[in-house]
Amino acid sequence: MVAGDHLNQWFMDNMPQFLIGKAQRATGPFPHERDAFGLEDYDVEIEGALARHLLNKGVEGHFDLSYSNEFTIDHGFVVPLSLLRPEQDTPVIPLFTNVMVPPIPPGRRFHELGLAVRELIETFDADTRVAVVTSGHMTNSIGSPTMLSFAQQPLTDWDKSTWHRLHHGDIDELVAESTFEHLYSFGNGTPGFLDYIFALGMVGERRPDWSELTYGPTQLPTGFLEWNEQTLNGGAR
Predict the structure, then answer these.
(1) What's the rounded Cα separation, in Å, for the pair 201 and 116?
(2) Alpha-carbon distance 133 to 50, whole Å?
(3) What's this model's pTM, rounded to 2 decimal places?
(4) How far is CA 63 from CA 2, 50, 57, 126, 154, in A?
(5) Going by CATH, does the domain composed of 2-232 fall within 3.40.30.10?
(6) Are strands 18-21 and 66-68 parallel, antiparallel or unpaired?
């Protein structure tokens, strides 16, 4: 499970770029998020063997991933997990990404990390089925004067063109353009889109098997995309 931390625990004085949570369990959300998002507590086992594999083999390869045994999963993790597995019975591995505080890795690095994580999962010896879920968003602006403009026109031209690229597997230019500065120009929260770029690194140019873009006056644009196992294992591109 890949998501950014929203300055709830990683802050200006301690901001890892990419961090794996490898404690025995992942719990959340933060107390203030229970009321803000109407969330229940989530407490789930962590798949420790695969987490250690990602860390150890990642260091041997191209990514020096950070790790921590002390963390809380915030709404970026808890919202999708609660919808996908309300039973809280499927082990997870939280992978925190820095999409909040510069310096933020460019889209190229998120894309490379997605590719690396896929390769590491494929070299894991255990007979384990793995689903990768990334949690991000399209244009977004929080606590700034532009919040009103998003309420009046939630779907921007950037959202429309980006959604077309995502849906049709046209990603090379999208990855190259996805720098912090470029994304920030569309709203101070838009760098959260970098977690989409991570997903594109995992799937390559394969088109999604299912997709839906939702938005409204009280809901910022959110794009949902799914690639099934057959597509990922060499299906239609």
Answers:
(1) 8
(2) 15
(3) 0.94
(4) 16, 16, 9, 22, 36
(5) no
(6) parallel
Its sign, for the CA torsion 166, 76, 48, 130, is negative
Residue 16, CA atoms < 13 Å, CB-side half-sphere: 18
Domain ranges in the chain are: 2-232
Give the chain's largest Cα–Cα span. 51
Tell me the pLDDT of the chain (237 aa) as tens digits.
Answer: 999 999 999 999 999 999 999 999 999 999 999 998 899 999 999 999 999 999 999 999 879 999 999 999 999 999 999 999 999 999 999 999 999 999 999 999 999 999 999 999 999 987 889 999 999 999 988 887 777 777 778 899 999 999 999 988 789 999 999 999 999 999 999 999 999 999 999 998 899 999 999 998 778 889 999 999 999 987 544
The first and second tokens of residue 13, run together, are 């004085």
Handedness of CA 55, 14, 106, 182 (dihedral sign): positive
